[in-house]
Amino acid sequence: MLNYAPRALYIHIPFCTNKCHYCDFTSYVLKGQPVDEYLDALEWEMAMTAAAIPPDVIHTVFVGGGTPTVLNPGQMERFLASVKRHFPIHADAEFTMEANPGTTDPDKLAAMRAGGVNRISFGVQSFDNELLERIGRIHNVEDVYRSIDNARSAGFNNLSIDLMFGLPGQTVELLSDSVNRALQLKLPHYSLYGLKVEENTLFHALYERNELPLPPEDDELAMYMLLIGKLTEAGFRHYEISNFAKQGFESRHNTTYWRNEPYYGLGAGAHGYARGERHVNIKGIQPYIDAASSRLPRLETSLVSEEEAMEDFMMVGLRMLEGVKAGDFAGQFAGRTMDEVFGPALRRLLQDGLLERTELPEGDFRYRLSAKGIPLGNEVFGVFISE
Asked: Which of 1, 233, 297, 365 would be a feasible disulfide site paired with 292, CB 3.0-4.6 Å?
């Protein structure tokens, strides 16, 4: 397994203007929260983390949430300065921050640029105002256009938006319109996610009461295939099951996860993976602050066995459309081979037409999802857990 210091850094800002109906992330409505005390605690965790696992050079930073852009410009400046104090950021690093449309005014964007942020991922979800209201979003379509314009005026050109499909009351036609409007923005990256009804959300409560009008499975599949068709026709590379990019604009940070490489994870509820160990941080704001004043604020920590790491390698690696390479597997796992460890599963998936094997130069080869396997990805990934 990989034992070098992580080159990727995830930081969680858990505050939002409101809680969306589908969201089960570690996030809390901003009003009344001890934001400055949280930023203090976050810096304490940065210092302790850098002491416990001294960083080399960080190549990717991802600030997620929550909605990190609810920080005011002064808080944003302070937060980004603390990141640079504790972690050496490569001059060519990808530095992403998630944002909600309507929360990125020019002053805040200037603070983000000055602090090193060079990529913004906007949680747009839909270009239909009624649908946005139905899922609990507080922005509208005009906020999207204004936010993209503000970001470009501030000098950001590496921009991405998230869209969702399979939403309550959404039709294939509504989704098609949203995708057309999204493409008119001429952005270099789009992430397109199907709704998952998670426990402890309003949508789950409605689902349990049979009050959530979800599209039929056939329509949801039609939505996904529509997305693939429209984005590829527009010249985007479908490089991961849910992600499309122009050449050179693929998410380098998320690729760290998909390659099962180590990463630092800081902040309330954050996950991290380093030195063969995974951790989850304490989720509550005040409990996180209290813990970080004296120790690393861990909720739980677990050693990752080689067997588990190999399963993870296959499951997350096959999310990428380029698939998993035999040489990379052998490099992570001391010369062991995919065929040796997962032979029966791989043969079955090849026989069912869900995977394909491709020969590469210098004797290497890879497995990747076939065109038939892409919409059935979860079935493919599940095979490796059972193995």
From this structure: 297
